Amino acid sequence: MKLSKVEIINELKDIIERLKKIVDSLEKIILEEVIIPLDLRDDVEITHTPDLIIIKPKHFLGDEKFKRLAKIVKAKGGYYVSEGEKSRFEIKVSR
Predict the structure, then answer these.
(1) How many domains does the chain have?
(2) pTM of the predicted model, to two decimals?
(3) Considering 69, 92, 94, 95, which has the largest number of Cβ atoms within 10 A of its Cβ?
(4) Residue 62 — left, alpha, or beta (φ > 0 → left; ψ -120 to 50 → alpha)?
(5) Nearest alpha-carbon partner for 45 in 76, 74, 85, 75
(6) 47-87 pLDDT per residue, tens
(7) Could you write out the DSSP letters of every residue in 21-49?
(8) Mean pLDDT of the region 32-54
(9) Cβ distance 85 to 45 under 8 Å?
(10) Which residue range(s) make up the domain with 40?
């Protein structure tokens, strides 16, 4: 069966979108594995944009866990953003 140019382009667009989702999933897994120790992973939510890794506590961490997380983030060149319930750690991604 021969596909038209439009059909080929649409197929390629679908493949690209699926690949983007796979890459996003893999990046998240890599970020979690590399940055956050196992015992802290349930305490934070990690999201990312092309330029930023955002680590948001799911609840109050307490002094010990907060200090550990802050040290890890700082070692990666990141910082803490204090905004009440929207407080988070951010690490700039260099690509």
Answers:
(1) 1
(2) 0.66
(3) 69
(4) left
(5) 85
(6) 888 788 899 999 999 999 999 999 999 988 899 999 998 99
(7) HHHHHHHHHHHHHHHS-GGGGGGEEEEE-
(8) 82
(9) no
(10) 5-92
